């Protein structure tokens, strides 16, 4: 997005132009081709090592689609996975309003989209350096300690702490995943983590209008709560004015929920980290 902006690209040009250095269709086309080529090369030239025969899954390594879904069902039956899934599906509620709505409110206030791309540039070095800085804390038996410590900061400064949470969660996924299942286990945990990010954001976007209180300047009884009332207000030469923005209500509610969740989540995550590796092995459930 930054290099699609003429304003941003003109910082690097001796003579200003009215177009950016890149355009979005060309960018997507280039990386689409790149992904196809790289994936094809990996499929052709990268071979997996034989897996440990101790895993029950590899008593029949040729799993078809049906067997793969049965395997996922077996993983989901593990008590440790069920409790961890609840953690992953609820941990992002505390900062869903900030994640989903803040950028939209800034655009509504007049901040150009290009500025967001410029603001993201300083975060790129941080994304590269942060995993290296946290590596000595995430390679041990308790990588989720970083995750827990980052949650209070995520409720305040959000994006920077989210990187720390991401690194810690990926380290924990790698530690608990059954090595005999390949990428299936990791994919399931990543899917749960993504769902835990997406559903709170969706709810936050849906609620923001319901929590916003507006009033028509020409008719105090008109709350501008639906398009018909907005049209009626404008027809009467009035204007819908926001009296109470639902965004701020959501920020407050989500912050309270986030800190309350931390009391439960901290104990739960500590308990999950203390469990032995056998509690996470799908071989104890089996695949029928």
UniProtKB/TrEMBL annotation:
Topology with respect to the bilayer: Multi-pass membrane protein
Keywords, alphabetical: Membrane, Transmembrane, Transmembrane helix
Molecular function GO terms recorded: acetyl-CoA transmembrane transporter activity
Gene Ontology cellular component list: membrane
Spans traversing the lipid bilayer: 24-45, 116-134, 146-174, 247-265
Pfam families: Acatn
A biological process term (GO) from this entry: acetyl-CoA transmembrane transport
Compartments where located: Membrane
Main localization, broad class: membrane
Name of the protein this chain belongs to: Acetyl-coenzyme A transporter 1
Naturally occurring in which organism (per UniProt): Cacopsylla melanoneura
Phylogenetic classification of the source organism: Eukaryota, Metazoa, Ecdysozoa, Arthropoda, Hexapoda
């Amino acid at each position: 997005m930054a290099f699609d902006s003429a304003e941003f690209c003109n910082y690097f040009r001796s003579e200003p132009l009215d177009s950016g250095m890149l355009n979005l269709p060309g960018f997507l086309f280039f990386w689409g081709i790149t992904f196809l080529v790289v994936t094809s090369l990996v499929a052709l030239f990268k071979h997996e090592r034989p897996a440990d025969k101790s895993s029950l899954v590899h008593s029949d390594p040729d799993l078809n689609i049906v067997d793969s879904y049965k395997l996922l069902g077996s993983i989901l039956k593990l008590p440790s996975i069920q409790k961890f899934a609840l953690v992953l599906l609820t941990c992002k509620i505390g900062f869903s309003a900030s994640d989903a709505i803040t950028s939209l409110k800034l655009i509504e206030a007049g901040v150009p989209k290009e500025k967001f791309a410029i603001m993201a540039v300083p975060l790129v070095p941080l994304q590269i350096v942060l995993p290296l800085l946290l590596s000595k804390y995430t390679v041990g038996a308790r990588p989720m300690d970083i995750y827990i410590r980052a949650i209070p900061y995520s409720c305040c400064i959000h994006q920077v702490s989210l990187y720390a949470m991401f690194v810690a969660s990926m380290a924990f996924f790698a530690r608990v995943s059954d090595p005999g299942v390949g990428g299936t286990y990791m994919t399931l945990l990543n899917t749960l983590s993504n769902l835990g990010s997406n559903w709170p954001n969706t709810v936050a976007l849906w609620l923001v209008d319901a929590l916003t209180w507006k009033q028509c300047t020409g008719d105090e009884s008109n709350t501008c709560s639906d398009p018909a009332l907005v049209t009626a207000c404008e027809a009467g030469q009035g204007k819908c004015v926001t009296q109470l923005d639902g965004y701020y209500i959501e920020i407050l509610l989500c912050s309270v929920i986030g800190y309350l969740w931390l009391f439960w989540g901290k104990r739960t995550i500590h308990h999950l980290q203390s469990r032995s590796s056998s509690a996470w092995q799908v071989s104890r459930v089996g695949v029928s």
